[in-house]
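Sequence, structure tokens reproduced for absentees:
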Amino acid sequence: METTQISAATTFLLGGEFNINRVGYGAMRLAGAGAFGEAADRSNSIRVLQHAVAAGVNFIDTAAAYGPDLNERLIGDALHPYKKDLIIATKGGFQRPNAEQWMPDGSPSWITKNIDDSLKNLKVDHIDLWQLHRIDPNVPVEETMTAVAAAVKAGKIRHVGLSEVSVEQIEQASKVLPIVSVQNLYNLGNRKWEEVLDYTTEKGIAFIPWYPLAAAPQTLEEKIGKIAARYNATIAQIALAWLLKRAGNVLLIPGTKSLAHLDENLRAGSIELTEEDFVELSAQ
């Protein structure tokens, strides 16, 4: 299959250190159903990961909870030894006893175990970006982040991010150590975290919307469809292009098991919406 190269112009400097292509890849869909268990087709999953990197993706998102552990091991098997500029971001802070349960665990002992296991699974001596998957309501965030700070001090982690957090929680965690990324649910049809996106933009923190291609209301899909026709693009590509236009600190991690859909997603990086189209899409 012909490789689709993403635009090198759409980059973001993560943590003041890593120049990230803003169209990345989220590996969660390469886990089993419910992000639990092994990939249904492991050989295809390896091809998808290798194709993404060949196409210019240098930011891949995973988590200890996907599998659990198996998604990280898949990435290690597919891509190690890693290209020099490839950033593998992972997350920790969930217990996964089965496919239905996602149990936040912010205890220092569990966080330390997650970090150490991720290092082994990914076959690395340090993690470029480690993110707290969820804040545990039963553990003060400062206590959780103290364990993360210890891993940073030990050289196990370079940069730290958070997921599904409020501005207040970002500020709480930032008292312990710098936060360079926030990964919250956000897309054209669901803008609950608008305030958080604006805050991260102001602070120079990366904003990584998970579920960037969520189904939109029928009326919104019709609006996107009309604009997509102007760009000879798909609805999904326009939804991704809107996110890139929304703020320069947005990093995309759409996931797919399909090589064709992967290339389609990457091409969204070359679509530059006009201000008029952006405003029309943004109206709710």
